[in-house]
Every structure is written in C-alpha cells, then in structure tokens.
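anyone else get weird line breaks when pasting these?? whatever heres mine. first is seq + tokens for prot A
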Amino acid sequence: MTLSQLLSNLSSNKYLVAVSNVFLMALPISLISTFCDLTAIFSQKMGWDTLSITTGYVGQMIAQMFPILINIYLSSYLASIKRIPKSVAIATSLVVFFLVSQQWNLISVAVPLPNSFALALLSAYLSCHLIFKAQNLPIFRVDPFTSAIDNSGHIISICAVSIIVMVGVSTGIHCLIESIDFHFSILPELNPLSFTDGLLYEFLRGVFWSFGINGHNVLHMYKTELYSLTTANIADWQNFGVDLNIVSTNFYDFFTGIGGSGNTLSLVLCILLFARSRNYRTLAKTVLILSLFNINEPILFGIPVIFNPIMIIPFLLVPMVSFVVAYGAIAIGLVPPLSTVQSWIMPPLVSGYLGTGAISGALLQLIIIIIGIGLYYPFFKFMDKRSLGVDVTSIFNNRFFTSDEIEAKSKLTSFIPSLHKNLQAQREVEKLQQEGEFILYFQPQVDIHSKKVVAMETLLRYRDSDGNIRPPTFLSSFTQLGLMPELDFWVIERSVQMMTPLAEKNPDFKLSINVSPTTVLTKDFVFNFAKIVNKSSLDFHQLEVEITEELLVQDENKTSEIIKELQLLGVSVALDDFGTGYSSLAYLSRFEFNKIKIDRSLVLNLNSIKGQELFSVVVQLGKVANAKIIVEGVETDDELHFISLLGVRYVQGFYYYKPMPLEEIVAQKLIEA
C-alpha cells in the first residue's frame, strides 16, 4: 500500500471522520471558553477582581463541557451509521463516561466533571458497538415500526446491560492494575531543566497528541515540577540575582507551543498562504483566532493531523526544531531568558515581549513561526495537491423523517468542500425540518388491456405546515450533503411498512421504489434492503427497485453484482428513464433488467413523425432485451393509442391516475384492502 493510499484510507475511515467532525461541532465551546479566559485576564489586569473571578470560573465550566459534548456528538454519529436508537446510544455512553471517569479519577480538579478526551471518545465508541451487537439478540431488539413507549422495555434493558458490562470490564481492569506491584514507571524520569530531557518531553507530548491524547494531561507531573522550579528560580533571581534558567514553564508555551502543541500557528498560516483548496483556507480562517490564543483542537482534528501519517511528521518535527532554536538563542545571549510567568493563552509576539521583557523575545517567536511555516509547507502541499478529504458528518435532528433511526449525514472533503453550497443545502434541509414533514404518494401503473392497476411507484413528497404538497425539488440539497442513502432507506422502510397490511390480499401486486445511485452503491445495500423486507409481510417478488443509467456509469461491475443479488432474492429490477442516456443500447446488452421504463421526454415528441420513429426504435430496443416495457407520463388519448399500437402493455401517467396518498388508492378500490 502506497503512502497516498494509506492516507486516503485513513481520511475516509468513518471513525476518524467522526472524531474530526465532533471536534469541529464543539468549536463554539472553545471560542466561548477562550473569550471568558481572556476577559478574566483583562479584568485582573484592570483590577476588576469580581468580574475576573466570575468569567474565569465560567470559562473553566464551559471548557469542561467540551469532553461531554464530544461524547454526545460521537455517540449520535455512531448511532446513525450503526442504525441504533440515538437515545439509547447517548444515554449509555454518557453514563459510562461519567462512571468510568470517576472510577479512574479522571475528574477535573477545578470543576468536578470528566475531563478526558480519550475516554469521551472511547466510551462512546465501545458503548455504541456493544449496543449494536446486543441488538442482534431478540431480548434487546428494538422494532423500528413500533413506538418508543412500546420499545421502552427493550431500551431500558439494553441501556442497563450495556452500562453494567462496560463498567464491569473497567472495574476488572482497574482491580487488576491495582493488584500488580509495579517496580518501574511507564514514563521516563526527566529533568525538566535539561536540554536533552526537554527535547524528549516535547517529543513525547507530540506523540500523545498524534493519537488524540492530550499530552499535557499525561505529562502533567513534569509541567507541575517545572512550574515550581520556575517560580522559585524567578524569586531567587529577583531577590538574590541568580541566573535565570533557560527552560521554564512558559518556555514550552511561548516557543514550542505557538498556536498550541506542534506550533500549529505555523500550519494555520501555511494554509492561509499556500493552500489551493478554498476549503482548507476556510478552515484556517475559522481557527486563526483560536490559534492566536494557543487553542488548536479544531486544526488538529479538522485537517486532520491526528492519525495522519503525513502531517504527524512536521507536527513532531516543528516543535523540536523550535526548542533547539529557542534554547540556542537564549543560551548564547541573543534573547534574555523568560523572567515572568504568563498565561498560556497569551498571544504570540505579545507573550514573547512580556515574558522576556525585550523585543528580541517577540522577534524570536516570529523567526520560529517562519521556520515552522517552511517545515509544514512540503507536507501540507502533499495533502493539498491530492485533495485528500475527510468525511465530516453533521448530525441533524431526525424528527422530520418521522423515524427514530434516520440520521442526516453529510459527506464533506478537505474540511468542508464546496462550503457555500453545503451551507445553503443545510439551511434548506433545516428549513424543511422545521416547517413540515415528508410523506409518500403512490402513482398506479396500469395494464392497458385489463385496465387494472398492476403496480405502484412510490413517490416522495413534502407537506408544509399549511398543508401544501411539494414535489421533491429539494433532492439536490440532500445529494449535496450526502443524505440520499438515509432518505432512500426511509422511503423504503416507510413504503414497505404502509404496504404490509395490503400484501396478503394483493399477492401479484408490485411496489416500485426508485433508489438513487449513491444508495445502491453503499456497503451492504442488498443486505439492509432485505432486512427491511424481512421485517414486513411483503414477499420479495412484490417489490421492484428502479435504477437509472447514472448508476451504471458510476460502477458497472458492482452494479451488475447488486442487480444479480436483488434478482436472486426475487426482487424485480427496472431501468428508469430509458432512452434519455447516451449508452442505453450498451447497457441492455450487459445487464438483465426485468422492466424498462421509457421516459416521458420521448412521449412529448409523439406529435411529430421523427418523434414517433424514435419512440418506436426505443420500444424495439426494450423488446430485444426481453424485459417488460412501461411508458411513463402518458396523458392523452393519442399518446395511449400510438403506444398500444406498438404492443406496449403497461403505462403510467395522468391519463389514468395522478400520484395520490395510499388512503385514496384504497378508497378508489384500485387495490384490495
């Protein structure tokens, strides 16, 4: 596997995608917390002690919400892709997160809340995975066609069992570790003031961050010791004139953590200066203000740097080079040592000047930033050149689908590709959610000879708050956001559910469902389709899947396999919009279709000789394929007469019936109820 392939695989991994996304979704928390911290520092300088204490405490409280939100967002996403109840996933992962955090003493000292990002992610992932596995057991199975009240027993039991199992395993591991007498420390003994140990500390901090673990928290004992040594050294310098140490607590903040671990302010500026992708630049502009105050989670998880074999290299290299440069500059006297202890969120240049008391401190920071840009540049260009993307998944409310299991997912690449289009699409989807609901209409397909309805096509419609019915003009927004698989599966589930009571009395009846190419090509499409049908009383031969030529163009081999799998189940496969593509004849020779649907655009030209001749050729092509032929959009006597002369038996259109709700079809006795 090449490096590009490895990076591509990592970038498209749905779990890495989830981690990237949830950190971006929690970005407002970072912004608000940073604003509160800055207000607290400014208020303290101004002597406004009450305001300083209040905003400082609020900032701490808000910052502690970050891991909790990460846990909620990730469990929501995993519930979506694993198709498990979101309420179960969130409740279980949150309880596990709190209990295990308490058990392992991973609670913030400042605010008594869990503060481990790694545990927030791990508890959400393991909880959702356990729930997914448990749902295969009948006792825990939640029926998607039943209400939450009817499912309450299953929901409570699966939550309780999952929590007990997870906490039980954690307890066992905790007891095992406590029972072992460790004669060594996993982490090395480091001298906080040493050049070589300082380099090793910086390297270890970067390695932990490379795997999404906060290196500051893991190595906090070193930073705590260094803080004590620094304050004592500054006091001795002020009182007795002793030499200041080169390495101090702010040395890492001001010279190797400019913009956050990895000196990521250099990366942000590199993106702003050199990125070809507008979306990378958008990301950089978004996080620049945070980077100026040394907060870099959004950039670490947005590029991503975490788990990225390309960006990890400069992420480790830049701060180590910066350490050497800063240490050398201070050692040879070009820059005075840091003589004060400042807040870690102090912006660069300002912090360099205030920390050293000299303009040379700010210039040293500027040089380090420029060096960092140069070191990040070749690695970022490798990323930018290949436009390697990440699936960043936005979790929307699912109530507008009227199904607890449907989640909205958006596929975004290179942080947020086509950001403007995605935002427009998201606004439309959210507006649809707030102002109405999706419903299903059905349009009968008629046998010309018997005048009987032999099948119905499922059609998606939208009903707004005023009761007005709209056609699916919104599908482009769902396509833009990558929502079509979820929308299609909702249509499949809902239509099958609606037809279930009518299945037994209409054994030869077919329900035709149009499925988008994106959905057909999703992993395990046939398996998930069959799973839905098996939960109903419909037989597979009563179902028909309509596909378009667009699907055949995308992946011919995989499409052929899917068609065969559906037909082996007994599901009919129809080629929709036949005659509108550029390669219809080629597809007829390569695929076995049960039905061919001639597009209405050809019917509209039947008023001319050329249009009639073309239509006749298309019908003849369909007959050669040995498939049933149905003509869409028939509206007049002349159209029906010409079509019947060609031997076509089935039609669909306003001539017989418009799309209508299922209740109206039953009321007109078009099918037996």
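and prot B, same format (seq, then tokens)
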Amino acid sequence: MNYDVMMIGPIAHDHNIDYQGDEVFELGGAVYFSAAAANAANAKVYAAIKMAKQDESILETFQLPGSSISILPSSVTTLMRNQYFTADREKRRATSLAQSDQILFEEIPKVNTTLYHLAGLLYHDFSNDIIVKLAEKGLVSADIQGFLRHRNPLNGEMYFEDWEDKKKYFKYFNFLKTDAAEAEILTGTSDRKEAAAIMYHWGAKEIMISYNKEILVFDGSDFYTCPIKARNLSGRTGRGDTTFGAYIAKRVNGNSIKESLLFSTAMVSLKMETPGAFKGTSRDVENYIKDFYSEF
C-alpha cells in the first residue's frame, strides 16, 4: 500500500490538570494528534511510534488500524505532566517525567510514503542525520518543538533553546510548523510574518506559525492567514499538531495552500471544543466551515 504521510514520533502518557484542579490521564504526543487529524482529512496515514513495548495497550484509542502502525521499541514511554492555570489553557507548566529513546533512521519502517513527518516532543527525540536521510526518500515535514524543547533529566523541567543547527537543516523541510513563541526563539523577532520570512530564507519551503487567534502560512511569495473560531477551549491540548496534521495531509493530496489552511483551521477549531484527538470526519469539518467560515 502507498501512504500519503508517515507520522514519526514518540507517543506520550499525558497527565493533565486543569485550572480548577481536575485531573485526567490520557494518550498524547504530536504523533497521536497529527495522525488523527491527517486521517480525518482523508489521507492514507502510517504511524511509526516510539514507545515501550509493555505499554502497547494504550494504543487502543489510536485512530488508525493496526496494519498502519509500527511500534519502535523504547526502554520507556514518554510521560508528560501539564498543569494549566487559566481556562483558555494558554498558561501552563509542563514537565516531562520520562523521555523515550531516540528514534534512529534504521528503525523507520520500509513502506512507501510521500511525506515523512517528524512529530517530536523533545530535543533528542531525533538525531539530525535522520532529516537528511528521510529527505533522500521523500518529502519531509517537522514540528520544530522536537528540536527546541529540552528536558532537565534531574527534575523533568522543560525549557526552550534555539537550535544551533537550524540553518544547516532547514533546507530539507518541505513543510515546517512552529508556534509564535518558537518562531521568536528561532528568529529573534515577535513579528510572525517577519519570522516566517526569515525561516523561508533559511531554506524551509512552506512555514506554518500557529497562534492562539489565527494560523499563518508563508510559501516565499504570499502570506495566508485564517482565524481560529473555537466556541470553547476544553480541547486546547494538541492544537498545533492537529492543525499541521490536517494541513500537510491536504497539501500532499494536491489542495492549495488556501484550501488546506481553511480546512485545517476549521478542524482545529472544532477539535478544541472537545478534549483528546480529533474524532470527527471530513464532513464534520466541511459543515463547520459552512457554519463559521462563510466569508472564506
């Protein structure tokens, strides 16, 4: 079978605590949210998931058939703790109580796919050479989080640092996703359009920058934006992963930037109203567009 997208990254046990102190334990990780979104966008999706073999049962809620999933064995499964301090979930304290082993190129399943997406959570999830080797096989996209967010092994505290090798490897990314804060760390500017232009100059072909009010995309010629129109924010976790997963799914299947951005932003707006990965259908997203994005 030929796949449109292979999502590669660590799955995570997420321990989420909201601003009222309510706790929930659930499946998380960029690979989880992005795979669900791409699947709902009607792409053929394969997932290569780094995790401890003994935790395999947690994949029961993963929204792909078992034949489209490979487990890349790890000594531990990544464990994240997110404590939110506001109702909109914009302010949080995140700690990583465990990090899975690094994903090596040799582990990547040998299946035919158009695009390889590096859905990392923490620095060291991937080695730099995996970027180059995957680029020799197909298109490559990445969530920059996996190259900027570090974990203190002593206490699990997470912090962000600029990626010193960015100018060497950006040229291999056909699609690149950052949020507004990550874009500023990379480029030194809080102006999102300026940051996107800088990253394009460094070699990334198509850049998405997520923000709490809108999503921006730049392809070197034009800037595209689309507002987020969620009616509530109970499903804030996984916002960027959902948006980018749907976006790259649409792009590799021939949709324009404008079409892909509208679909992915509408999907994440709908997804943010319910905790967890997106569980709707492409038709649900299309109906949401009719109801809330008529001006587009």
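btw re prot B: The mean pLDDT is 94. DSSP finds nine helices and 15 strands in the chain.
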